[in-house]
Design goal:
Layout (H helix, E strand, L loop, with lengths): L1 H11 L2 H14 L5 E5 L1 E14 L6 E14 H10 L5 E6 L3 H12 L3 E7 L7 E7 L2 E8 L7 H17 L4 E5 L8 H13 L4 E4 L13 E2 L3 H8 L8 H15 L3 E5 L5 E5 L2 E8 L12 H15 L3 H15 L10 H14 L2
Parallel strand pairs: 1-4, 1-8, 2-6, 4-5, 8-9, 9-10, 10-11
Antiparallel strand pairs: 2-3, 6-7, 11-12, 12-13
């Protein structure tokens, strides 16, 4: 490890070496085969113009100008990974309904494999419909079933994951948990155990219901709200000192290798298990924030690639932080632009040596 630290310190002092190193990392993304497991959903948008209030109720009238469907949830993680140049495979459970057909069509358009999708007539395909008037989100309508999948579906999904891992050269597994019922205790613990047996790193974007089940993973990435909810610490403050103390308790509870906590406008926190020297909050860059939807999907996607490639946390955390900020500048769920992220990463490290 000291050799790696010396190496990184050396390249940070030399712009040419720094640029070359960061470009080589981004080029290496194409060698990674991530497996994404979690809740996929259809993000639907109704765009329009508002110029008057309804005479029927004190609500604005939206004159529709455009309707659009996008991939959301774990599917947005897969798109981010695809846009970053790698080869993601996704495993999830969807309904056997019209929205599932729309979802599959979007997968096809984005050249994403649907081999890992399981259709179940007892469930709905989750759909989040956002009404946007004058470029501001006015309301969101959710159509979903959030009950845990059945024991039968659990078994099918676990076997599907194991089959894909055996057939494909999977380099990292991403658990994208939106608390919609796809990820259960049995699914989570079984796949983590299988991943460890096959030396595959695991990264997790958790939610409150399953928080305590994500034991022995390589990297846990809650946002600050999820961390407070998962540990039932309503009064937790977003400071390095308090996060450092909480991390110790979290590592005892879950035995994760590392922790990343996104802190919205305050930046991002990183700490490695049993190494307080690594604990640090990296500040957020100044952005014109339009919409935070999907930012966590982008952050976990970047983290997963860096974990798969075993790249230094110092670079990993800050580049993931930049990526999350970039996608917040656009309205709606959008994937990261690889070229823009590369350009901003090079500029950022040149200015923040």
């Amino acid at each position: 490890m000291p050799d790696r630290i010396c190496f990184l310190s050396g390249i940070l002092k030399n712009n040419y070496m720094l640029n070359k190193y960061i470009k080589s990392i981004f080029e290496s993304f194409k060698t990674v085969n991530p497996l994404v497991i979690g809740d996929v959903m259809l993000d639907s948008y109704i765009w329009g113009k508002v110029d008057r209030i309804s005479p029927e109720a004190p609500v604005p009238i939206v004159h529709i100008s455009k309707k659009e469907n996008r991939l959301g949830g774990a599917a947005n993680v897969a798109i981010n990974l695809k846009e970053l140049g790698c080869n993601p495979i996704i495993c999830s459970v969807i309904g056997a309904d019209d929205n599932s057909n729309l979802l599959k069509q979007l997968f096809k358009e984005h050249q994403l494999l649907t081999d890992g999708l399981i259709c179940n007539a007892e469930r709905l395909t989750t759909q989040k419909t956002r009404v946007i008037g004058n470029n501001f989100q006015m309301i969101r309508i959710d159509d979903e079933i959030c009950n845990p999948v059945s024991v039968e579906i659990e078994s099918i999904l676990i076997e599907r994951v194991k089959t894909i891992i055996k057939k494909k050269q999977i380099n990292v597994i991403v658990f994208e948990d939106y608390d919609k019922g796809v990820l259960t205790k049995n699914i989570i613990t079984s796949i983590i155990k299988f991943a460890k047996a096959n030396n595959i790193p695991t990264v997790v974007d958790p939610k409150k219901r399953n928080f305590s089940y994500y034991k022995n993973v390589t990297l846990l990435k809650p946002n600050f709200k999820e961390l407070k909810e998962g540990l039932k610490l309503d009064e937790l403050k977003a400071t390095k000192e308090t996060l450092n103390d909480v991390s110790k308790e979290l590592f005892k509870l879950l035995n994760n290798s590392s922790l990343v906590v996104t802190l919205s406008e305050k930046g991002i926190f990183y700490i490695k298990n049993e190494s307080e020297l690594d604990a640090k909050i990296f500040p957020a860059t100044v952005r014109n924030i339009a919409d935070v939807s999907g930012a966590g999907d982008t952050v976990i996607s970047v983290l997963a690639l860096f974990v798969a490639l075993n790249i230094e946390p110092y670079l990993m955390t800050q580049i993931a932080n930049l990526a999350g900020g970039i996608v917040c500048e656009e309205i709606g769920t959008v994937p990261i632009n690889k070229a823009k992220l590369l350009k901003e990463s090079i500029k950022y490290f040149a200015e923040n040596k």
